[in-house]
Structure formats: structure tokens, C-alpha cells
């Protein structure tokens, strides 16, 4: 699969998330407080809740239902009750177009305890 245009960069609000679905894969597209664009799985791993309805703070997206915050960079939950990460997708910006390939996820190194 190749990258799919999901929206224009100008459609994304800073510190907000937008839900998109590519071939049945729900993805939260987020412009963080630095203006960087991220794409993570849109379903909270604690419950079947859309993360794009949550709150963006810095480089995290917090689930509105139970408060688990996920790193937009790694997909890892930063607090309970979620303990499983969400996928993180590569984002390509071409002009004003935001493109995502749901078949390409970023590799995340495991936590070392």
C-alpha cells in the first residue's frame, strides 16, 4: 500500500486531533504544540474509545474517558489504566497535503526496567 492523503495541513488545528480512517484503520492525526504532525492508532488500548476525541498536550494525546495519555512519538501509554501501546504511523507532508501509509508503522524500542 502507498501513502494516502488524509487531509491538508491547513485543516489541522494546533494541539488538536483529527480522526481519519484508511482502509478500515482508524488513525488520529495530531498537530502538537510545536506544530509537528503525528499519526497514531485512534483506539485507546484500555477501552474501545476514540483517542481523537481526547486532549493534546505537548507531545501526548490523552484519552477523554479514563485519562491514559499516549506518547505521539512512541505510542506508549504514559500512565494507567492503559498499558499497551498504540501504533505510530509515518507521516509525510507534501506541500499542504498530509499523507499516511497505515501499512508502515514506526519501530518502537521496548521499555527497559
Automatic annotation (TrEMBL):
Family matches, as InterPro entries: Rieske_2Fe-2S, Rieske_2Fe-2S_sf
Keyword annotations: 2Fe-2S, Iron, Iron-sulfur, Metal-binding
Signal peptide coordinates: none
Recorded GO MF terms: 2 iron, 2 sulfur cluster binding; metal ion binding; monooxygenase activity; oxidoreductase activity, acting on paired donors, with incorporation or reduction of molecular oxygen
SUPFAM superfamilies assigned: ISP domain
Ranges for domain Rieske: 4-100
Superkingdom in the source lineage: Bacteria
Protein name in the entry: Non-heme iron oxygenase ferredoxin subunit
Species classification: Bacteria, Bacillati, Actinomycetota, Actinomycetes, Micrococcales
